[in-house]
């Protein structure tokens, strides 16, 4: 399931309209995102939004931020920093353990 499909499915299951959800999600300037922007995300017409917007979507949709970041194909900022400073072999072992656990 794509990032947009996850957002749409969860929003609908919580019986929240696109307008209601869009009004709750604030850009960095404090303005709400538009319902059209949310519609474009849900239909995979746009790339997934920033980590800040994903965190808000996760909160409003009662989903894990990490789950949504993974679905968006990105990493939480704290992991980006850890990965950039880590031994490649340690990172590889961590990925192997992750794959084994998630199967």
Which descriptors apply to this entry?
about 100 residues; mainly alpha; 7 helices
Describe this structure in words.
- The structure is a single chain.
- The two termini are 16 Å apart.
- This protein has seven helices and no strands.
- It is mostly helical.
Radius of gyration: 16 Å
Number of helices: 7
Q: What is the terminal-to-terminal distance?
A: 16 Å
Measured as a percent range, the helix fraction is 55-70%
Average pLDDT metric? 94
* Structural class determined from secondary elements: mainly alpha
Shape descriptor reads elongated
Give the number of DSSP strands.
Answer: 0
The poorly predicted ranges are: none
Order of helices and strands: HHHHHHH
Q: How large is the share of residues in beta strands?
A: under 5%
Largest sheet: none
Per-chain topology:
Elements: H1 3-13, H2 18-24, H3 35-42, H4 51-61, H5 65-71, H6 77-84, H7 88-102
Helix pairs in contact: 2-3
Compact summary:
By secondary structure, the chain is an all-alpha fold.
């Amino acid at each position: 399931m794509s990032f947009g499909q996850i957002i749409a499915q969860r929003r609908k299951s919580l019986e929240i309209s696109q307008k209601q959800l869009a009004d709750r999600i604030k850009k960095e300037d404090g303005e709400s995102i538009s319902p059209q922007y949310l519609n474009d995300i849900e239909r995979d017409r746009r790339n997934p939004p920033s980590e800040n917007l994903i965190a808000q979507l996760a909160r409003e949709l009662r989903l894990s931020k990490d789950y949504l970041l993974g679905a968006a194909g990105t990493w939480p900022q704290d992991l980006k920093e850890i990965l950039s400073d880590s031994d490649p072999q340690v990172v590889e072992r961590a990925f192997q353990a992750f794959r084994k656990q998630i199967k």
